[in-house]
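Late entry, evening session. Most of the bench is empty. Finally got around to the prediction I had been postponing all week. Sequence below, unchanged from the version circulated by S.P.
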Amino acid sequence: MERKFEIIGEALNRIKRLDKLLVTTIPDHDRIITFRKIISHGYDIVNHAIVWDVVQNHLASLERVVQHLLTP
């Protein structure tokens, strides 16, 4: 799961560099990017309870936003 969050955060980071307006349509994009940095570089301080909380309570809403953006 952590690897998937790294990918999501990196994708948002790249979108942020390419299209600053688009990234603002994704709630908490800065927090997601920071979460990715912690997982990638601070692996020794990752709190697995927080990771699991994000999976259970926040991932579905992010998926809905992204699906909406991908719908033509």
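Two things to note before I forget:
The mean pLDDT is 95.
The helical segments are 2-18, 20-23, 29-41, 48-57, 59-70.
Will write this up properly tomorrow.
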